[in-house]
Design goal:
four-stranded antiparallel sheet; six-stranded mixed sheet; 512 residues; globular; binds zinc ion; alpha/beta
Length: 512
């Protein structure tokens, strides 16, 4: 099904064969690319008393210590710590390699030098969104940019896209993976793609105009923003026939969101649009997509690319690798990256039903798949578990539950303090828009009962808002990511007249 040769060799292999090939590739990757040139992993391997020779199969992978987000964050001693993870080849080492000598003999020394430079020199970067922590840069070489196109191109091919398709990329323009992944998808598969930059660059109206002009067959963007654009299209009576696929990224996707987006597409004249979720993260420099499936059926999971990297599912408490089909934290190790490289990276994301190697019930491929819901803990770790009104609330679950309520369109949950007093009681305001003709009282009761029975909380107020007001509340077109949960509780610790902290650069070493 995939057109690139790498995958053609892998997609029919069974579990043992995939793992054996991955183990061999991992050994060579560590031996030839990572350990000779990574300052960070030279130290980590030395401290653990291991070399590339000790890592020959996937069972050996557990000998490598985990890397976590904290390992990449700057410290006062190491203000540019993430650069320790960048592969910096020694030209002398590369020059003496038999593969380089052979290449120079067949293609000439000038071309060989240029090819090696393109393979190893960082020329591009994306960064983590840095909502809870400082943003971390991930560097790419031309080799990595080719992988962006390869991975996103595979998603396009899996969804049945052809060169006749037209894509509208509505991810916000930013140095973030999602925007560039979709940008390179069109480049790699030779598919027309207009990148609008999302709401912040062109506004809802600009994106609607683009839909009318381009008549796209694929819309890609963040679920909340796509919801706003499509609802506005319905309100204005805009017709957009021929949308075949809605490709979502950047946020998790609840079943309810999927259903609502498909319904909106049907209302503007595209009844056959398939809604596909993707999962990706900055550190992998890749994202993966679900196999497209018929609504109402069990989702077949996310197809992985075993030739480009290894996923492990570990018990978040013990760090032990879970058996197939058992949920846990996702851990990723690349097999093809240059630039910034992290090994056994703990994503902080939880996969509900782990990994399966069984053939996909939809497309028949044996490529490993991630099964069940992914909870993006890392995205809002600081917000995930909050004590509100004396009850610990899992906001991850709460977001899924609200997205699933029929009859409401978009929503925003606002945490406040009574009388805006930091020491007073917590209050929950839920702002919603109606997406059906059901009376407000009926919706009010349905939401209130759901929150009470599933989360043991009752909102202080459920406020019905117009779509315009909701766009303002969620900061559509203003913030990079629409805001569905906001904490407006004043902090008791912040003294009201404290001077602002000194700019950070003053305290940092002059060498920076
Ligand atoms: Zn499939």
């Amino acid at each position: 099904m995939f057109t690139d040769t790498l995958t053609q060799q892998w997609h029919s292999l069974d579990r043992a064969q995939v793992r054996e090939l991955q183990g061999r590739k991992l050994h060579r990757y560590l031996r030839d690319c990572v350990l000779p040139f990574s300052a960070h992993y030279q130290k980590v391997f030395a401290a653990a008393g291991i070399t590339a020779a000790d890592i020959r199969n996937l069972d050996d992978l557990a000998k490598i210590p985990f890397t976590s987000k904290e390992d990449l964050l700057p410290t006062p001693e190491q203000p540019r710590r993430a650069l320790e993870f960048v592969l910096r080849p020694d030209p002398e080492v590369l020059r003496k390699r038999p593969s380089t000598i052979l290449r120079a003999l067949t293609r000439g020394p000038a071309r060989t030098r240029d090819e090696l430079d393109r393979e190893w020199r960082p020329t591009f970067m994306t960064a983590t969104t840095g909502r809870s922590t400082e943003s971390v840069a991930f560097l790419y070489t031309q080799h990595d940019i080719a992988q962006l196109g390869l991975g996103s191109g595979r998603i396009a091919t899996m969804g049945g896209r052809t060169r006749e398709d037209r894509m509208l990329n509505m991810f916000p323009f930013a140095p973030h993976l999602a925007f560039w992944y979709m940008f390179y998808s069109g480049i790699d598969r030779n598919i027309f793609c207009l990148s609008t930059g999302g709401g912040k660059v062109m506004g809802t109206e600009g994106n609607l105009r683009a839909i009318q002009k381009i008549r796209p067959t694929v819309l890609t963007g963040m679920p909340t923003f796509l919801y706003h654009v499509l609802s506005e299209a319905v309100n204005l009576g805009v017709r957009a026939e021929g949308i075949k696929c809605i490709l979502l990224g950047g946020e998790k996707v609840a079943e309810g969101t999927r259903r609502k987006l498909a319904e909106l597409c049907a209302q503007i004249g595209s009844p056959d649009a398939v809604v596909v979720a993707t999962y990706g993260f900055t550190e992998a420099k890749l994202a993966w997509a679900e196999c497209p499936f018929t609504p109402g059926h069990t989702p077949p999971g996310y197809h992985l690319f075993p030739d480009l990297g290894i996923f492990e599912v570990v018990d978040p408490e013990t760090g032990k690798v879970q058996p197939d089909g058992v949920g846990g934290e996702l851990v990723y190790t690349p097999l093809e990256q240059r630039g910034t490289v992290v090994l056994r990276y703990r994503t902080g994301d939880h996969i509900e039903q782990g990994i399966t190697y069984e053939p996909c019930p939809y497309c028949g491929q044996r490529m490993p798949r991630l099964m069940g819901r992914i909870s993006r803990v890392s995205d809002f770790r600081s917000m995930r578990f909050q004590k509100v009104k004396g009850t610990i609330i899992d906001f991850n679950e709460l977001e899924h539950a609200l997205d699933d309520v029929r009859g409401i369109g978009s929503w925003q949950l606002e945490l406040r303090k009574a009388n805006n007093d930091p020491l007073d009681l917590d209050e929950i305001y839920l702002h919603v828009t109606r997406a059906s003709d059901a009376p407000e009282e009926t919706l009010h009761a349905a939401i209130s009962n759901m929150l009470h029975s599933q989360f043991e909380v009752r909102p202080n107020k459920i406020v019905f808002q117009t779509p315009e007001k909701m766009r303002e509340l969620q900061k559509v077109g203003v913030a990079l990511k629409e805001q569905k949960v906001v904490d407006n509780r004043p902090k008791a610790t912040a003294a009201p007249h404290q001077p602002p902290p000194a700019p950070k650069c003053i305290t940092e070493p002059a060498s920076r």
